[in-house]
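Task 17 of the worksheet. Students: predict the tertiary structure of the chain below and write it out as structure tokens. Keep your answer in the requested format; marks are given for formatting as well as content.
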Amino acid sequence: MFSGIVEAAAEVVKLVREEGNLHITLRCPFTDELRIDQSVAHNGVCLTVVSLPGDGTYTVTAIRETLERSNLGDLKEGDLVNVERSMKIDGRLDGHIVQGHVDCTATCTELSEADGSWYYKFEYPFDRAQALKGYVTVEKGSVTVNGVSLTVCDSEKDSFRVAIIPYTHDNTNFCRIVPGTRVNLEFDIIGKYLARISGLS
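Model answer:
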């Protein structure tokens, strides 16, 4: 379980494909604090640490289904990935409840500056069946974009906008998101549960 409060933007230093799997090696400030089998969210995708070679890097593995559902298959060496370790049971929930299970991807279609901050618009394919499962955004509700807990504005059935403050822009991979960039979305788990309880899915 995560909160959507990104700890660092890790740099991809090596990518190795093995059949349907992708082994991703990254470098980040807290590598020395990691351990084998630890869960870390990568652009919002929960992955397990499988290797710690001791050179300041660590490796995780994404399977075929993860690559098909997320943007991790788009990664190139030198890219930045938003990373967050799982929540501590006695910690503050500064963002919102995030499972690390990406629902779909979206594409950035607009980027505009607003008095020192930025507005990003994202569009994703509308699917009624998925919408009935709670795969929708709610005005002023929460959504996770590349692992970042954000508040929705201008919500439509297949698009929404988020406002990004300078700190978030500079300390996550939002600094590299431009129109055409594909991002990972995880919709609010509470909304998905409410949809299931109400009998809509």
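Marker's comment: The two ends are 23 Å apart (CA to CA). DSSP finds four helices and twelve strands in the chain.
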